[in-house]
Write a structure and sequence with these properties.
Elements (H helix, E strand, L loop, with lengths): L8 H6 L12 H8 L24 H17 L4 H13 L5 H4 L8 H23 L22 H12 L20 H17 L11 H8 L1
Helix pairs in contact: 3-4, 8-9
């Protein structure tokens, strides 16, 4: 298997294919696991916290990952020593170091992802509806503007929105240099109330017909 020299671990990670069978790890998956992993050279007793959560891997997962790290060592000889240490951790089953090898976040539930997308769609709809209004008196434009998520309480929602921003999605409401940290603990609850009212308004109209929100309906949603 040959790879163009222009391929970097970062570019391969960004193109990682999420579909893979249980117990199998694709090569690009290995790249994404390695990104952000600190060099393991010179590991001493004071370099880790014994109280960290231990991860369990099956024998198949350990062998698969170890084989892929060996492939990476051939592709990137300048990091061969580091990859060799990762292989040793996996092959000898030093589970206390698994958290370092597999530096990935917990999965974000599908329901939470859908909530983020629903909120983004709502704000895009509000923008279009607001722009079409002839009489905008009484509506503060800032109130129909998406301001992101709280970085402390809604970090996963924030991270997902930053990702789709980088991918160029929802350009109408996500400008390229816009900060998406609202620094407000009430952000999520406010979006939830707005979304309920937004869905309520839409339920009153025929989805197959063309219609526009009234100023009062927009005020009700953001109120």
């Amino acid at each position: 298997m040959r790879f163009p020299e222009s391929w970097s671990s970062t570019s391969l990670a960004k193109k990682a294919v999420p579909r893979h069978g249980t117990g199998y790890f694709r090569l690009d998956r290995a790249f994404s696991l390695i990104e952000g992993h600190p060099a393991c050279s010179g590991v001493e007793s004071g370099d880790y916290n014994p109280s960290i959560k231990s991860t369990t891997l099956t024998d198949v997962e350990r062998i698969s990952l170890s084989n892929q790290f060996r492939i990476l060592a051939k592709l990137y000889p300048e990091r061969a020593e580091e990859y060799g240490q990762l292989c040793e951790i996996l092959e000898r089953g030093y589970s206390i170091f698994y958290e370092e090898v597999l530096s990935v976040s917990d999965e974000m539930p599908l329901e939470e992802c859908s909530f983020v997308f629903d909120v983004l769609n709502m704000f895009r709809d509000l923008k279009y509806q607001y722009d079409d209004l002839r009489d905008k008196a009484g509506i503060v434009e800032d109130h129909i503007t998406f301001r992101g998520w709280d970085g402390n309480d809604d970090s996963k929602c924030l991270a997902l929105t930053e990702y789709v921003q980088k991918e160029g999605k929802w350009k109408e409401i996500l400008s390229g240099n816009q900060s998406l940290n609202s620094h407000s603990s009430t952000t999520r609850s406010r979006y939830g109330r707005m979304l309920e009212r937004h869905n309520e308004i839409h339920a009153k109209h025929d989805p197959m017909s063309k219609w526009a929100m009234t100023k009062e309906e927009i005020q009700y949603i953001i109120g």
